[in-house]
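User: You have something folded?
Assistant:
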Amino acid sequence: MLQVFKPSLGEEELDALREIFETGWIGLGPKTAEFEERFAEYVGAKYAVGVNSATAALHLACVALGIGPGDEVIVPTITFVSTAHAPEYCGARVVFADVEPDTLNIDVDDVRRKITPRTKAIIPVHYGGHACLMDDLWDLAEEKGIAIIEDAAHACGSSYSSSKIGGLERSAMTSFSFQAVKNLAVGDGGMVTTNRVEVATALRRLRWVGIDKSTWDRTEEATMEIASGIRRFARYGWYYEVSELGYKYHMNDIAAAIGLVQLRKLDAANERRRAIAARYSTALGEVEWIETPVEKPYTTSATHNYVIKTPFRDELNLHLRDKDIATGVHYMPIHLQPHYRNRPHGPLPVAERVWTKLLTLPLYPSLLDSDVDYVVESIRSLPAAG
C-alpha cells in the first residue's frame, strides 16, 4: 500500500536519541532550548517556544493574546479542526471565513465582511504550505486593530515574498506542527515563533503550568572534590513561583533531539516534495477531469500535501484503494462538523462547493518516481471518468 504520508526518519535520528538516553535528561531541557534557538534562526524569528503539539501552540497563542469570552476569532473553514478549537478553548466565538477556490487559503474579502467590533484575532492557515496573501491580511488587521496568529502546520520551510513563514514582523505569532507526518516530524510536537519578548516570556510560563522557571532553568553545574578527582554534577534549584494558570504543554528533549536532525534535513526534503508535486502536475495536467494545485508567484510552498480537485473524488478514492494506493481528504469544512454545524454562520459557498472534489494523493520524500507514475497511471484508468 502506498501511504498518503510517511515520515522520513533514519540512523541520524536514532543516534540523536542514543545521546539523549545516555545523558538521562529526556524532559524539558537543553535539547529543547537548542532546538528552539536553531528553529528561530531558520525562520528568522527572534524567539521560538517548543510545545507538545500544534494544537497546544494555537491555544497558547490565543491565551497569550488575552482572547476570551465575548471575543471573536476568524478562521478558515477548510483546515484541521484544531484551528477552530483553540480560540473556543478560551471561550471565544469562532467565525468561519470562506476560502479561495484555487489555493484553498482564507479569502481576505470574506474576512473583511465578517469582522465585527468583537473580532480579536484572525488565524490564517497556509494550506498545504502555500502562503496566504499576508500583506492584504496584515493591512486589514492593522486597519482594524486585530492580531494575526499564523497557522503554519503545513508550512514548515515555506516562504512568503522571499521570507520564511514564521519570522514575519507583522504577525503576533506563528504556530508550527511537528506531528508524525508533517514535513518536520518528531512524533508529536509544535512551536510558536514570535518577535515580541513579552509574548515569548508569557508562552514559556504558560506551557509549563504557569511556573516562572523550568527545571532546566533552575539547574546549574556544580563540582565536588572526591578521592578520584573532581566530580561534576547538576545542582537543582527547587524554588519557583506560579503566577498564573498555565498548562502542561511543554516539549521534551526526546522530541527536540529528533527535531534538530529533521531541521537539518528539511530543505532537502522539501525540495524532493516539490519535485514529486511537479511530476504529478505535469502528468495530471493532461487529464481534463482533474484540477492540479497552483503555486502563486509570491510563495515557495513547503508542499506538505498534494491535493487535486475532481468531480469523481469518491469514485477515485475507492478505485485507488483497490490499486493499493491510499488517499485522503483535507478537509471537510469545520462548519459542517457536528460540533459546529448548528451554529449561525454566514455564507461559505466556495468551501461547500469545493470540498466535495478534494483528494490528497501520496506525497513524502521517499516516494519514488516510479510510485508517482503508478499513481498517475491508476488515476487515468478510472472507469467512471472514461
Summary: The domain at 11-210+245-385 is CATH 3.40.640.10 (Aspartate Aminotransferase; domain 2).
